[in-house]
Amino acid sequence: MKPIFLFALLLAGVATALGIAFLARADDAGPAAPIYGVTLPQGYRQWELIAPAEEAAPLDELRVVLGNPVAVRAFRDNIRPFPDGAVLVKLAWKRAPSADFATATVPGAATTVQVMEKDSARYAATGGWGYGRFIDGQPADEAQHRTCHACHAARVKQRDYVFTRYAP
């Protein structure tokens, strides 16, 4: 075989392998949230901490907000509006008393994972953000998603619809 043919065959094999890997990632995205089509991002539990949060009664939750590298850079460099590709994930748990330290609380039962995904073209009608709310890895019902943008627009539109502030 001629070297150029072998090189073309090798390139075709690499392209096919990459195509198959890309399709596998897309198929593994999991169920999509109603209205916005947002899915749980792969590897989000390894993302960097943006900020902790605490929700008082009636929810009584401990929360953390994680960000992908695009979101982290935007927070650190104070880039607003957030660039397309920024993704924020909020994990929430019921607060539970610590068995080891009387005045401390620890995460109890998980309640939700909430996702905000910036894509100015796809989510133009909602300030460039798509929203997803997941309970036990499954999307919450459509009614719960209808309130997402309205709440963000009413309270933090001036901060590109983002409640979270970066914890230095």
Automatic annotation (TrEMBL):
Cytochrome P460 domain boundaries: 41-164
Pfam annotation, one family: Cytochrome_P460
Keywords of the record: Signal
InterPro entries membership: Cytochrome_P460 (IPR032033), Cytochrome_P460_sp (IPR038142)
Keyword Transit peptide: no
Kinase found in the keyword field: no
Signal peptide boundaries: 1-26
Protein name as it appears in the record: Cytochrome P460 domain-containing protein
Organism taxonomic ancestry: Bacteria, Pseudomonadati, Pseudomonadota, Gammaproteobacteria, Lysobacterales
